[in-house]
Amino acid sequence: MQDIILEMKDIEKTFPGVKALDRVNFTLRSGQIHALLGENGAGKSTLIKVLTGVHRMDAGTILFEGKSIRPTSPMDAQRQGISTVYQEVNLCPNLTVAENIFIGRQPMRRGQIDWKTINRRAHELMLRMGMDIDVTLPLATYPIAIQQMASIARAVDINARILILDEPTSSLDENEVRNLFSVMRELKNQGMGIIFITHFLDQVYAVSDQLTVLRNGRLVGEYTAQEIGKLELVTAMIGKDINEIYNLQKAQPGEDAKAVLDAQNIGIPGKVENISLQVKEGELVGFAGLLGSGRTETAEMLFGVTHAAQGSISMHGEVLALKTPLDAIRKKMAFCPEDRKRDGIIADLSVRENIALAVQATRGFLHPLPQKEQQELADKYIQLLSIATPDADKKVGELSGGNQQKVILARWMATNPDLMILDEPTRGIDVGAKAEIQRLMLEMCHEGRSVIFISSEIDEIIRCSNRIIVMRDLAKAAEMDGSACTQADILAIIANEGTKEEAV
Amino acid sequence: MKKTLISGAFVRSKLFWAIVAELLILLVGFILRPDFLSIQLRTLSDGTTVLFGTPVDIFNRASEITIIAMGMTLVIALGGTDISVGALVAVSGAIALKFLRWDVLVYTTPGDYTVQPYYLVILLPLLTCTLMGLFNGVLIGKLKLQPIIATLILMVGGRGIAQIVTNGKQFTTQYTPFKFIGNGSFLGLPLPILITLVVVLTVVLFVRRTSFGMFVESVGINPNASRVSGLRSDTIIIIVYVLTGLLSGISGLIYSSRISSNDSNNAGLGYEMDAILAVVIGGTSMTGGKFSLLGTVVGSLIIRTITTLVLYFGVVSEAIMAFKALIIAVVIVLQSEPVRNAIAKRRSKRIALGGEARA
Amino acid sequence: MPENKTMTIASGRRMRNLLTNPKYLMVYATIGIFLLIYLFGALLYGGRGFTSVRTFMLFFSDNAYIGISAVGMTLVLITGGIDLSVAAVASLTGMIIAYGTTVLGIHPLVCIGAALLVGVGLGALMGACIQYLNVPPFITTLTGMFFARGVCSLISRESISIKHPLIDALAGFKIYLTWPNAQGEWVKIKPVASIDLNTIAFILMIVIGTIILQKTRFGRNVYAIGGNEQSATLMGLPVSRTKVLVYAFNGLCSVLAGISYVLYVKSGWNLSLQGAELDVISACVIGGVMLSGGVGYMFGTLFGVLLKATIPAIITFNGSMNSWWAKIFTSVLLLLFIIIQRAVIASSQWVKKKE
Fold first, then answer.
1. Residue B18 within a domain
2. Chain C 208-247, CB below 8 Å of chain A: which residues?
3. What is the bridge-based pairing of β-strands A218-224 and A259-268?
């Protein structure tokens, strides 16, 4: 048995109105990869933030190599030997890759920064991660995956005792994940303790030794990877039987249903090309494929967020010239974007205003929705979608992720759309809210509306879709019947030539 | 259960502190000189009655800034800044005086000719300033330039244009209808106050009775999400800057009417700073989002009250800035997030402690 | 052997980068347009001495106070902040030196010491206000500007001329440029050109600024904060300390600029340098420093100051144009530069997409 390097005991942390951590224990040994699991809001990130000094704990002790510590800032934690890689790339886009890896502890020569050594060592580090790139270019010139690798390289080079990886894999493709895992194993063999947070259960089993599960700020249990099965693990995470939630009835559009949307060979040169699809009345079309396979790009073209330079889009047989999202909204389309924070919610506006926003946009500001109608609209959807908010005047930014997602959904349902495009509507929200959103999508189909549903989770797509379009490498790879295909079929298509060559 | 007189949310709001600050400053003035707050009705030689007194004077002299600050509030709510307003004030005055003193330029015999029809003297400056606002708006809304730099162009260039319009000369006018704008009175109130009231009311109605205010806040908080939700942010941005240009023009007319002259170097000097301060003191965050037009009016009054107070006690006018800075520093520190949170925390702690004692 | 190969590839890449790296495009644009305008002036007024060494040296000595202040401003702008107080603090420096020396009879060095204390202290205070109270830089430094200007006027409303042997000596210091004549003797060049203390200070500050930005951890932290302040914090960089220091350093630069201005005009006046903060900021912007933070080079700022200096020079050489045309030309130049900046940003995004 290896030595314990970190022991967190009875950690408590309360935010106004929420007990985020309630007497949580966590133990990490050297040479161990320890997965920290739980749904959103379980307290994983709060625990990490307490450990890295972003938040101060209210009670409890942290023993690091036997000594009691109380990190006061990320800098402090880093100095003590705890380094962290966050889900969002937390580097500076304007600095070069090399500098991002070394900033704050640059090698110095005669009192000056030694750029040569920085660039050479950064190149070596990136090579070790399996990336042969020019490290002297600004970080912003590289795709997210490489940026993420750079931040891992930074954390690795700090020679920390503990490395925390907070959902590092969400923007990496399979190949990159494999590289990351081999680096993780190498570090583990050197005796580092690694805390690994991820939503992908397969990855948990692929690389972790030990698992700790949190739920609602409490410790559920600690297991070894061998002793706990996947289903058991999920049950521990969500606290109820998984099958109970997933009882959904697929929509059944009639054979002779009319096409609502018809897109022919749309594309933007260099981005996505030559995509054709049709969506019928009451049909749910699923978009499967990896992140960056062209799913979001296609949705954005359909909704006029970006302008489709090629091809034609028609609704109900009428060819559209979409320049802005407003044009699409006027033609009874709606679009829940992937990045809820960036493209979805208006955090400081109230729930009511957020719900009324799209309806108001179609009316123009000179024809305001009367206060009373706005209120009715908000109340109706708060009830219909069971949005957990004390009243319609609460700021959306203060709601939980799942409820924010529902508010955005409400904004679009209020426009009474014929076609709803949902881009990853269930990402990053807890299982309960997830099931509810799936139910809502299917309900819309039952009412005769059409839905385009984009998701990274293939089983979710299979469960809901009538037809599935598989995207790969910025193009449409296949179109299949939703009732007659399995996860394996789709994976096979995604994986076919799926490992793209890294261009050097 | 004892109910607090003022709700916690209001105490935490910046507007509350702005009002408290204004009252405190007035109180200081009142303690030092009891006649500081007195208002009288006086009859002028031409038979009109006008209100006199320091408070009236404060309102009167705050007009130029208040009018501009209405537009500036929306600009800041969009997350921008418009530092060209002072230069636009100069442009407005220069154009007005150019047409008022057509004689100097066109007629050889001196006299007080104005260009005909006379209302062009009002319309042309306003039109020019509106167009300059449009220039700012297009740079920011369509070309997506940073507001500070985009408006820096007209801030630097505007005064040059004002000088070119009047060929670098300073004209004075005795044309009564024009002088009436800044010096006249109606219903016992100085005309600038009435103009300000009309402007404030119009802007408030326009912003709050339509959905324009909500759109501005939405774009200011999250431009991406607003676009996806169907808002045309570029149009909204352009409207706001055009409005600010127009309001700067109105302010410029009041200013040049007050001094019956144009002054390309000094007209509106530092107005952009005062207007931005008024907005921020009034509780609108520089980062954009929620705004308070009422707060801005209070902010503008605070700035003018400080000036008046300091002038009242015989401090040289240039040194006013130091006092202004000190008082503004206090207001801003009081309003700053950490301090407000600390105060709110102490309040809630007190309540919590009381609760525990009861239990 | 393989390592050696990597090294050559890397150095080859670096050469290519130096030319095509989008980071440097703005600086190239500044230098290019400076050369163009200089050429334009040379073609029109070359015969009247526009191209003389004397005129060129005057670009430096006449604008030294702008340049020195621009060094500090560059750092502030790179962090993503702004400082509107620089001109007022420089003016206050002038007032302190003039009032102290002429009216109170204190030795100028003591006055300079006092001014340094005030300037750096005010800078640090503003930095602390921005960092710890989250007051926007624009508002904080605007208040600082009001304060400094007000104190100027409290000291005196009259212009005070400075008569002190030390100041005269410093202001009179000149190194004349010489060249060998036909007899091989070193004589002053014609028209007489010299390097004065202001020019030396300006160049020195640019060099110091470059070293700070490129060779010290502090300088790199400045870039990191401008790139993404939250990331910089999470990377464990000393964000608070750096930001306060940047504003304190800018306070120092403002005082030095004030001293430079005193040597230039040998007097103090409460309304001197009004609006000069905009000259400083626009010089930086023209030099390729982005107000959004994270991007900028001292070298660019140097050329920004020079480029801004050529415009009034050309107007002076023209003789028939009014001085306000300088304002218009400067604003046109600003417009041009921010459009170039847009284009550069767009092109670097294009690079990103291509990757």
1. no
2. 211, 214-217, 220-221, 223-224, 226-228, 230-238
3. unpaired
